[in-house]
Amino acid sequence: MTIAHLLEDFGNAGKVEPVATVSDELLEEQKLVSFENGYSAGWDDSVKAHDQETSKVSATLANSLEDMSFTFHEAQSQLIESLDPMFKVLTSAILPDAMAASFGHHIVDQLTDMAKGQTDQPLVITVAAGEAGGVRSALTQNFSVDIKVRENNDLAPGQAYLCVGDLEREINSGALLDSIRESVDAFSYQVKEDANYG
Length: 198
Prior knowledge:
The structure is a single chain. This protein is α+β, with helices and mostly antiparallel strands and 198 residues long. The chain is 63% helix and 12% strand. The chain contains 3 helices and 4 strands. The protein has helices at residues 24-115, 132-138, 173-197, and strands spanning 123-128, 147-152, 159-164, 167-172. The protein has a 4-stranded mixed β-sheet with strand order 2-1-3-4. A hairpin with a 2-residue loop joins strand 3 and strand 4 (167-172). Helix 1 runs antiparallel to helix 3. The longest helix is centred in the middle third of the chain and has 92 residues, at 24-115. GO terms for molecular function: ATP binding.
């Protein structure tokens, strides 16, 4: 018995299998396809990364703007709340006193404007009861026509009617103050509503 069956046979070891040859054109075509596939994949990755970055920046910007808007409205609301007592003092004490002090001068300004071209007509001022003395003391300017100051119990303090010939004007400091108070209250209310409900 031989041991040949136990040993490896190297007799066919020298034979080389033929390798399929690839033409240069086919090789260039495969390289071009590989390049285009790689380029396309890289371009797609770049576009995807850009879109993700743009989305991230947009979200960050939107959050920042929302925070800034909230901060602005919160600051505005706090400012108005702190100014509200000052507005109330202004419209209930300071403005009425200032208007009362300048009431006579305001009448003189209006009369001067009305008297232009009406030099032969009498000037009639009708004021609330108790205000005639203050108005007469404000009439320091020399007018070329007669000025009559009358009191009317139906008029409220700060209210006057001026008449020169056929021209008439009303001065109503009380209505003006009420209008200013209403405007300030409406403004404060609107700011509070905006702060509460956006």
